[in-house]
């Protein structure tokens, strides 16, 4: 799975369909975590995962 970091995307399917998404690396010099920012119709949410493997699992559950 190729996950674009630092770019805005759009979730087309799954439980979060219709949300825009942006993933930000917490500390790019280390694999120390990722923020997952989403929004739709003035609803704003954020999540955090500990590493890249956790990020892949998180996104698979959302876009399933």
Automatic annotation (TrEMBL):
Superkingdom classification of source: Bacteria
Name of the featured protein: Uncharacterized protein
């Amino acid at each position: 799975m190729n996950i674009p970091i630092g770019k805005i995307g759009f979730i087309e399917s799954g439980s979060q369909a219709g949300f825009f998404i942006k993933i930000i690396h917490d500390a790019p010099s280390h694999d120390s975590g990722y923020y997952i920012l989403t929004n739709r119709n003035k609803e704003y949410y954020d999540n955090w995962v500990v590493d890249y493997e956790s990020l892949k699992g998180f996104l698979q559950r959302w876009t399933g």
